[in-house]
Specification:
Helix content is 66%, strand content 8%. The chain contains 15 helices and six strands. A four-stranded antiparallel sheet has the order 3-2-1-4, with helices on both faces. Strands 5-6 form a two-stranded antiparallel sheet. α1 packs across α3 (46-81) and α13 packs parallel to α15 (363-378).
């Protein structure tokens, strides 16, 4: 019931935002005062009273979708212009990915993000790889489309009311996204485009971590397992800054390579170290580290430690993302096999992943997870 109320509340908030944005735009760019805008509602019939707010909400949602798409397209175009290679392009959960020399469409989502453009960097030394254009491309595209939309809004005097309402919302969302990503800040512990660019310019270790992450992700999406990649790729010089999302991600990727090689004791020690820095890790990396520690603790026979980790919140996180991640299915497999002592259930999870292996985004991860589940089943 609470979820239904939240949806209904969000619906009406969306309508209110759309109406206020439209009214503000008409006052700023038209010859109507705000009191005249409000007064018009007293002259509307029932159908108009219902229809205009619904249209306003629809325009608001369309504007968000378009501006998010344009933002990611900006990263894509600027990245390709900088010599990067296409890997994947995601808008909300719709993802286009290059696999086997072809571009395929899949469904995948990441909490806290509306889209993502992943490219593989050019084969050059770190210091020669450009990062500025790739990072600012999204912000530049948002502001460019705002300027384009302003032209008809300012020059056309007799523009239909609905077109004017849509353009105003499109411009408002574009400015909002541009500022949200163009002013250096962290949101939910994750740095935006401008914040990331500033780190890349200031810290050579962060740039090295970004280059490594892009290269590793590209190969994993194309089907290569972590253990098949050079060990040197997963090594960061000096002490790991777990507060730096890029460096922390590489550290977790190195642990993933250990798991793929079935170096369980080493992986367990490293995961305990990572989790000990949980206050520094951004939310999603903290959950990822804890989920992998739960899995590895079960494999090495530390069931008591696993039960400490298997709180409702973490298990709920694993179950939620098990729909799109074979790694989460592997973790549920371990819970069934080692904690619930239900081999039949574990075998069922393995068969499910094997049957739908082509639907997952990270094909190298799927290959690894299936191989590990097969190995662990053979030992029981």
């Amino acid at each position: 019931m609470n979820q239904v109320l939240k949806i209904i509340g969000g619906f009406f908030v969306g309508i209110l935002i759309g109406l206020v944005a439209a009214g503000a735009g008409l006052v700023l760019f038209g010859d109507m005062s705000f009191s005249e805008y409000i007064g018009k509602f007293s002259q509307l019939n029932v159908i108009e009273v219902i229809g205009i707010p619904l249209l306003s909400l629809a325009f608001f949602l369309i504007a968000i979708f378009l501006q998010v798409s344009l933002h990611e397209a900006g990263h894509l175009m600027c990245g390709l212009a900088s010599g990067y290679r296409f890997v994947s392009f995601r808008i909300f959960s719709f993802t286009w990915i290059r696999q086997g020399g072809k571009v395929r469409m899949k469904r995948f989502s990441v909490s806290g993000t509306g889209g993502q453009c992943l490219l593989a960097p050019p084969e050059k030394p770190d210091e020669e790889i450009p990062v500025t254009l790739y990072n600012i491309g999204g912000v530049a595209m948002n502001f460019l489309t705002v300027l384009v939309a302003l032209v008809p809004l300012v020059l056309i005097d007799d523009m239909p009311f609905l077109w004017k309402m849509f353009l105003i919302q499109f411009i408002g969302i574009g400015v909002f996204l541009g500022l949200l990503n163009g002013i250096p800040m962290k949101m939910g512990g994750i740095g935006n485009d401008a914040y990331s660019l500033r780190l890349l310019k200031q810290n050579s270790g962060t740039k090295h971590a970004l280059v490594l992450q892009l290269r590793i992700n590209a190969l994993i999406q194309e089907g290569m397992r972590p253990k098949e990649m050079p060990e040197a790729w997963f090594r960061l010089e000096g002490k790991i800054d777990y507060g730096d999302m890029l460096q922390a991600t590489i550290a977790l990727m190195e642990i993933s390579r250990m798991q793929d090689r079935e170096e369980w004791k080493e992986a367990y020690v490293r995961l305990e170290e990572a989790v000990s820095h949980s206050k520094e890790l951004v939310g999603i990396l903290k959950q990822e580290a804890e989920a992998e520690l739960l899995f590895t603790a079960l494999v090495v026979g530390k069931e008591e430690r696993a039960r400490e980790l298997a709180i409702d919140k973490l298990v709920a996180y694993i179950r939620t993302y098990s729909k799109v991640s074979s790694a989460k299915q592997r973790q549920l497999f371990a819970i069934a096999l080692y904690m619930e002592h239900d081999k039949e259930k574990a075998e069922g999870i393995y068969r499910t992943v094997k049957a739908k292996r082509e639907s997952y985004l990270m094909q190298g991860e799927v290959n690894m997870d299936l191989a590990l589940m097969e190995s662990l089943l053979s030992q029981r």
